């Protein structure tokens, strides 16, 4: 893409919008105000600008706040809280402008945040344009003049006193301004001057000296002369006095006067030196050609010779703002400052270079409200020239779109829905004001920006929020909005916070990374920020939908998202043929373990489950009346679990080799078992010769151009997938195996900041989607993915390790099976392996509550084989340890969920403390009791940590 930059000069960019006319909204007509709905109260300040059969779009041309009115529901949704002036209790005064934010941006250096209202609306630097079914607002984020630009550093006595006495009427303002300046000039002198360390006085001031003309300073000088005269007089009296007692009294008095002389002289000298240095620094700071004191010369100060001049003194920032307001009130502008500075040879004031152009479009599409930011039109300061002719760039890091859309006040009831894990709810105003806000990156970390660390059972900081779906929403009362990020989702993060923390409103929104930011070590313990000039230039688009009554909850949101995906062809109903639920089984073939080979330790592929042993385990399961087995075989590729670069489907010989794998596949096909061979593409574990992988060529690069590495391998560049995946599939297809499983294609999206060509995260996501489509559609494999990120939903038959929990963010109050409700009836799924779960019972109950199927991860070898290895977390692998439990669980779950195979979840609810009820479209409900004690619901008793199926009226 082309670099984004401010073209030619900033004035040209400003001219894009200075012609914008700000139109103040008229009162809407009487017949539009007949409703008494509380939510419509804010429409009186907005103007109707677009409508369709279902919605009306209102807009305020002054604040650029908008509202969407649902005609049928008689409910309005506001981009900013319409009642904030009376109901906002946390933000005070001008800080309440925060709630008028439609766009907020952050840029570097220093991660500066700016909002459209304070940095575009306030300067009338925006333009509003009508578009089909909506409106477009073009914001120019600009603080053209800073506070200091309004304040002259040096100004002649004549000019200043004309302003002071002829233009300013308020006596208090006069005093404020006068007290902020020192009156000085240079006069010729033959007397020696004090030596100033670090400054060559003879070069800088020649035979001139600084004279301070301030009244207070002159009074101190006069007082010093009086003290000196008094001391001289006392000395004469002492000399003439003969009475020793009187002489002693005079001597004491003279000593006191001499001490006063010393302290007064010290203060005068200090004031003089401080003023001198302040004058020198003021000139230095306002001259781009001066970088060090040694460059100063007399011509830089010559205008002060016999010319009384006011020097702006050191004042704190809050007083500077007051002084700026005084000047601004008399129309004394930065351009006037430039005129006064020119008299003293100071540089002209330069407008702020930190100017950003961002457009946003609002449209009504049927029953939905669609917001779009065309990121390819965003302009930020790229290599703009300063007054010193230096190039500077202010990278636009991210933009937050409609941060307060649908925000719910602290006194409303409901919750924020966030897609953390399977789904999570944050109760409105839950009182958790001491906890951090929620922030979850859609599709998880980018391992070129955040290298993956080896997880440990005790370090939860290594477990970031899992956000597989680009959605969010708020329920308040009997109304809810639900947002779907349609474009730019891989660049998005979901951010949310509760009321009474930073403001009086609960809110959730999406933030989009525009320019990725990294860091590079500098010195011993410091880092410097680094960027790539390439920025995201695709579209950002969010679709808002509105739900009411019984639909206004997370169940309604899930159903709406499901319908959305079905209508787009992403989800297709399952063609149910089985009478029994799936039994998901993962067998690990080989594990790379350090072993001594000829006296040297090296990694060897230790067989945990050979193909022959896999057949034995499958036969035992079938003997227990488990027939619908879906087998994921991991560690079958050469090298085991951390297999070699998969440019070919090379089978690990220690598990039985190619022949053994073909025998396993034949056995599976003969017995109706679905076999899925597992492969990882995006992490390169072993860099062996002649495997087609070259580290420096094929690895992703971090922003500092170093090769991106995880704790267990290299991060493959997304561009390499275009050749790697077809190469592997072509060879794998020869094996005749019908299923392919992969963990990383569905859970990892990594950038590549290669110097030749950069692939941003959205570029990488597009490549991964294409490869997943190729696996499913071009080669026709049945698929099994982990997680899984939303982009694989059209191309997966099974999802394993689907989250049945959330990240554990302190702000979250409840887990809900949102993801499960979206895909049930379209994709079969399971959570984490039951035998691997830290809390066995909790894992099983959550699986049943969310309509998932049993999943076990086994090996034929004893579990102890992983002890002391990098795979110590696989601590319960041996199939014999949990075989009987697995059989018992499967049949129990099959009895309950068997009648729901292929059926959608139509409701989920908490019917008592720690008791849930999940209802399917055929009327069957499954009640899960998470308590350790039995509970009775509607006459039905469910034992502690147990579940039961209940038939409904419409049960088939």
Protein architecture, described:
It is a single chain. With 956 residues, the protein is α+β, with helices and mostly antiparallel strands. Helices cover 25% and strands 26% of the residues. The protein has 19 helices and 50 strands. It has a 10-stranded antiparallel sheet with strand order 7-8-13-14-28-23-22-19-20-42, covered by helices on one side. An 8-stranded parallel sheet has the order 43-41-40-37-33-32-29-44. Strands 5, 6, 17, 18, 21, 24 and 25 form a 7-stranded antiparallel sheet that branches. The longest helix has 42 residues, at 244-285. It is elongated and about 130 Å long. 43% of the residues are buried.
Relevant terms:
alpha+beta, elongated, eight-stranded parallel β-sheet, 956 residues, 50 strands
Share of residues in helices = 10-25%
Low-pLDDT parts are: 1-37, 457-462
User: Sheet with the most strands?
Assistant: 10 strands, antiparallel
Beta-strand residue percentage = 25-35%
- Rg: 37 Å
Query: Which shape, going by the Cα principal axes?
Result: elongated
Order of the strands making up the biggest sheet: 7-8-13-14-28-23-22-19-20-42
Number of strands: 50
Mean pLDDT: 89
Give the CA-CA distance, first to last residue.
Answer: 57 Å
> Which class of secondary structure composition applies to the elements?
alpha+beta
Total number of helical segments? 19
């Amino acid at each position: 893409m082309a670099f984004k930059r401010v073209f030619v000069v900033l004035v040209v960019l400003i001219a894009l919008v200075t012609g914008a006319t700000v139109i103040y909204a008229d009162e809407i007509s009487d017949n539009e105000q007949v409703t008494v709905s509380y939510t419509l109260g804010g429409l009186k300040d907005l103007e109707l600008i677009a409508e369709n059969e279902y919605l009306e779009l209102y807009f305020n041309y002054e604040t650029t706040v908008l509202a969407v009115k649902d005609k049928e529901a008689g409910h309005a949704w506001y981009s900013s809280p319409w009642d904030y002036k009376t109901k906002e209790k946390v933000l005070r005064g001008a800080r309440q402008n925060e709630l008028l934010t439609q766009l907020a941006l952050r840029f570097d250096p220093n991660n500066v945040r700016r909002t459209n209202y304070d940095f575009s609306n306030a300067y009338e630097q925006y333009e509003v344009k009508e578009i089909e079914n909506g409106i477009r607002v073009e914001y120019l984020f600009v603080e053209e003049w800073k506070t200091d630009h309004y304040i002259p550093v040096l100004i002649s006595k004549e000019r200043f006193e004309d302003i002071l006495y002829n233009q300013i009427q308020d006596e208090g303002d006069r005093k404020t301004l006068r007290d902020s300046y020192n009156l000085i000039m240079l006069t010729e002198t033959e007397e020696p001057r004090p030596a100033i360390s670090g400054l060559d006085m003879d070069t800088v001031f020649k035979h001139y000296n600084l004279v301070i003309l301030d009244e207070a300073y002159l009074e101190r000088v006069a007082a010093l002369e009086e003290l000196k005269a008094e001391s001289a007089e006392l000395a004469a009296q002492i000399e003439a006095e003969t009475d020793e007692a009187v002489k002693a009294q005079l001597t004491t008095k003279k000593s006191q006067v001499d001490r006063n002389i010393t302290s007064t002289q010290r203060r005068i000298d200090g004031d003089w030196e401080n003023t001198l240095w302040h004058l020198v620094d003021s000139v230095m700071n306002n001259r781009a050609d001066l970088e060090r004191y040694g460059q100063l010369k007399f011509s830089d100060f010559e205008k002060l010779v016999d010319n009384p001049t006011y020097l702006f003194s050191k004042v704190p920032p809050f007083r500077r703002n007051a002084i700026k307001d005084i000047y601004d009130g008399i129309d004394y502008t930065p351009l006037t400052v430039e005129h006064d500075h020119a008299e003293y040879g100071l540089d002209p004031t330069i407008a702020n270079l930190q100017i950003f152009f961002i457009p946003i479009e609002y449209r009504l599409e049927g029953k939905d409200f669609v917001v779009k930011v065309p990121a390819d039109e965003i302009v930020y300061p790229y290599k703009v020239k300063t007054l010193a002719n230096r190039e500077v760039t202010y990278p636009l890091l991210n933009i937050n779109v409609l941060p307060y859309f649908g925000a719910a006040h602290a006194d409303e009831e409901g919750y924020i829905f966030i897609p953390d894990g399977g789904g999570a709810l944050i109760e409105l105003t839950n009182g958790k004001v001491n906890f951090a806000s929620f922030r979850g990156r859609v599709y998880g970390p980018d391992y070129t920006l955040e290298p993956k660390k080896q997880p440990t059972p005790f370090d939860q900081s290594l477990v970031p929020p899992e956000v597989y779906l680009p959605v969010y929403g708020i329920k308040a009362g009997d109304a809810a909005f639900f947002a779907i990020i349609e474009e730019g989702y891989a660049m998005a993060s979901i951010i949310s916070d509760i009321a009474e923390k930073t403001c009086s409103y609960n809110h959730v929104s999406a933030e989009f990374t525009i320019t990725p930011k990294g860091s590079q070590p500098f010195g011993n313990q410091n880092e410097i920020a680094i960027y790539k000039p390439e920025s995201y230039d695709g579209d950002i688009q969010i679709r808002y939908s509105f739900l009411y009554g019984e639909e206004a909850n997370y169940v309604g949101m899930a159903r709406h998202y499901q319908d959305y995906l079905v209508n787009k062809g992403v989800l297709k109903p399952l063609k149910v043929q089985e009478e029994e639920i799936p039994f998901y089984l993962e067998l690990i073939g080989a594990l790379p373990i350090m072993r001594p080979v000829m006296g040297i330790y090296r990694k060897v592929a230790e067989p945990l489950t050979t193909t022959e042993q896999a057949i034995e385990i499958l036969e035992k399961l079938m003997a227990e009346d488990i027939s619908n087995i879906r087998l994921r075989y991991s560690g079958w590729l050469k090298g085991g679990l951390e297999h070699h670069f998969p440019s070919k489907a090379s089978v690990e010989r220690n598990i039985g080799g190619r022949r053994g794998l073909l025998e396993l596949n034949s056995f599976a096909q003969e017995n109706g078992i679905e076999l899925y061979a597992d492969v990882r593409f995006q992490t390169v574990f072993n860099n062996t010769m002649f495997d087609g992988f070259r580290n420096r060529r094929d690895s992703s690069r971090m922003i500092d151009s170093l090769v991106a590495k995880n704790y267990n391998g290299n991060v493959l560049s997304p561009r390499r997938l275009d050749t790697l995946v077809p190469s592997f599939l072509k060879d794998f297809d020869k094996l005749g195996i019908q299923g392919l499983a992969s963990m990383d294609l569905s859970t990892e999206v990594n950038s590549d900041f290669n110097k030749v060509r950069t692939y941003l995260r959205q570029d990488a996501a597009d490549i991964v989607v294409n490869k997943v489509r190729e696996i499913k559609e071009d080669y026709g494999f049945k698929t099994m993915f982990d997680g899984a990120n939303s982009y694989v939903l059209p191309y997966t038959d099974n999802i394993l390790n689907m989250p049945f929990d959330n990240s554990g963010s302190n702000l979250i109050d409840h887990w809900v099976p949102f993801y499960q409700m979206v895909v049930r009836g379209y994709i079969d799924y399971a959570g984490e392996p039951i035998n691997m779960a830290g809390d066995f019972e909790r894992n099983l109950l959550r699986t049943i509550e969310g309509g998932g199927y049993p999943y076990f991860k086994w090996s034929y070898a004893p579990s102890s084989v992983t002890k002391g290895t990098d795979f110590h977390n696989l601590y319960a692998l041996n199939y014999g340890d949990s075989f009987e439990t697995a059989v018992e669980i499967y049949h129990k779950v099959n009895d309950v969920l068997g009648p729901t195979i292929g059926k959608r979840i139509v409701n989920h609810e908490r019917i008592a403390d720690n008791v849930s009820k999940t209802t399917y479209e055929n009327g069957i409900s499954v009640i899960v009791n998470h308590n350790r004690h039995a509970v009775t619901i509607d006459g039905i008793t469910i034992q502690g940590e147990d579940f039961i199926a209940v038939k409904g009226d419409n049960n088939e």
